[in-house]
Amino acid sequence: MAKKRNYHVIITAAGSGSRYKNSSGTKPKQYLLLNGKPVILHSLLKFQKCSDIKSIYISAMPQFFSYLHSLAAKHKITKLKAMVEGGKTRFDSVKNAFNQIVAGLNDIILIHDAARPNLTKADLDKIISESSKYGEVIPAVKIPETVKKVNKSTVEKTIPRDDLWLVQTPQAFRYEVLSKAYILAGERNDYTDEAAMAEHAGFTVRVSECSRSNMKITTQDDLELLKRLMKK
To answer: Which among 202, 207, 227, 208 has a CA at the least distance from the CA of 217?
Structure first.
């Protein structure tokens, strides 16, 4: 019988939310209230309740460490193992947290955006199930709209959308795969997600079709939409 894999979560919360602040002039979006709870807490509670998850690591700005410790204690987030200072880029922030994890080579690392508070149990279970079989799995949704390439407000061409997907989180990778991918990446830190790094390193990454409701908060409108969606 194959040994059961452990699952470890990295929550990326080190971003300053510059795009959101530009529209609202407020603090980072991951700490705003969403239906009475900080945005990041919604994800923490879901990972805490998931029996497959062994540990949680948060990459954040140091000035929020005390707040996050208090939040975790108040809501009994016992799986939180460490908070790690974020880097200059998302890539650096995730890598800093990854370096703190002690795991088996075939254990799975889940990397999740703090600004995606509406991850459903069904989607999380699906990612866990598929990653236990295939290793590297990312959630995504198909693009329903027509896609145009535009140059200076003028349409250059229409891009076929059949093979285009919008990628979400949590993204799942075997510990061994991420370790090798980071080595191959060297000093490069401009990958927009870990899937891009794994692809560049030559690993196969599978797509799992998940819910559109697992949206990322980027603007005030996104937050207001999620307030309505998550009240249902």
So the answer is: 227
The structural domains of the chain, with segments of one domain joined by +, span 7-229
Higher pLDDT, 231 or 223: 223
Strand partners, 171: 111
Nearest CA-CA partner of 24 in 228, 221, 226, 214: 221
Interval 2-13: pLDDT, tens: 557 899 999 999
CA distances from 144 to 46, 137, 177, 190 (A): 28, 22, 32, 28
Please state whether the peptide bond connecting residue 144 to the residue before it is cis, i.e. omega within 30 degrees of 0: no
Report the predicted TM-score, pTM, of the whole model to 2 decimal places: 0.93
Of all residues in the chain, the percent with pLDDT exceeding 90 is 88
Which residues are CB-neighbours of 144 under 8 A, at least 6 positions away? Answer: none
In total, the chain counts a number of residues equal to 232
Kindly state which CATH superfamily the domain 7-229 is placed in: Spore Coat Polysaccharide Biosynthesis Protein SpsA; Chain A (3.90.550.10)
21-35 pLDDT, tens digit per residue, is 545 556 899 999 999
